[in-house]
Specification:
6-stranded mixed β-sheet; 8-oxo-GDP phosphatase activity; Nucleoside Triphosphate Pyrophosphohydrolase; about 280 residues; NUDIX_hydrolase_dom; 3-stranded antiparallel β-sheet; alpha+beta
């Protein structure tokens, strides 16, 4: 349709199909964080991020939604896991970035044992009486992720596990000491004798780790279901670990396997080079 006809149609009050936008509102990056005012006697009146313990039979996401509803009064939906902290099998802390999906914030008249109230606070104007300053880095990480994600969205996978353990994608690449040409990089993986990725109980390393220099890149996935207490309330962290020196000779129940599949080799190298992996912090 010619410009003349388009203008004439508008002048006559007739419509034109919208095929593109030339000006759109500027998208502002989120800069507010949900905080709750503590109700417990030892920290009553102080402000903190919503948090809590998982209950028997809960999944990680169910625990997240339940705690937010109890402490802040709103419904939420997780966007991604943001960080994992661990102190061994008895203390694993999952931090989520989430968004509000419904209900209203808890007001002072609704205070109970879970919290006194909830409020949205700008990052640059947080309340002075924060319970612990450890949440500041988490708040900044959440805002940074909203502004430009540095790893892909990651949600827990609903798979049963009865212990706290790690599955290692333990890799070595030739660029770590053999070749500077990334086009020729070879990749090796540590596998069990029946060609399985090693799975070890938390804080237990296979003996082939002895004297090796390793770099824990981060978490590739989290497996948990929690449906049957005592049988499925463990968690498996699929962890990418990069070896800094050439693999040693085979021993024990493990062996090194060279990845010859071009697509798989490229995917592993891309993960290593981009570093786009969920961070884990050992405390």
């Amino acid at each position: 349709m010619s410009l003349k006809k388009r203008v004439e149609r508008v002048l006559r009050g007739e419509g034109l199909e919208v095929t593109e936008l030339h000006l759109v509102p500027e998208q502002k990056s989120p800069n507010e964080v949900l905080m709750i005012q503590e109700a417990k006697a030892e920290c009553r009146g102080l402000w903190y991020l919503p948090a809590g313990l998982m209950e028997d039979g809960e999944t990680i996401v169910e625990a997240l939604k339940g705690e937010i509803k109890e402490e802040a009064g709103i419904d939420c939906q997780p966007i991604t896991l943001l960080q994992i902290q661990e102190k061994g099998p008895n203390w694993v802390h999952f931090t989520f970035l989430a968004e509000k999906t419904g209900r209203s914030l808890k007001i002072p008249e609704q205070e109970n044992a879970d919290s006194l109230q909830a409020q949205w606070y700008n990052r640059d104007c947080l309340p002075p009486n924060i319970h612990k300053c450890d949440i500041l880095t988490l708040i900044d990480a959440g805002i940074k992720y909203c502004q430009g994600p540095w790893f892909t969205v990651l949600q827990p996978v609903d798979l049963p596990c009865d212990v706290v353990c790690q599955r290692f994608l333990l890799a070595f690449t030739s660029s770590n000491g053999i070749s500077d040409n990334s086009d020729e990089d070879s990749v090796w993986l540590l596998l069990s004798n029946n060609f399985q990725l090693p799975v070890v109980a938390s804080k237990c390393m296979p003996s082939i780790y002895d004297q090796l220099s390793v770099n824990t890149c981060g978490i590739l996935g989290v497996q948990h279901t929690g449906r049957v207490p005592g049988k499925t309330d463990g968690v498996c962290l699929n962890t990418l670990v990069l070896l800094d020196s050439p693999p040693k000779s085979e021993r024990d129940c493990f062996r090194w396997y060279e990845v010859t599949n071009q697509r798989l080799r490229t995917e592993i190298l891309q993960k290593i080079q981009e570093g786009s992996i969920l961070p884990v912090q050992s405390l």
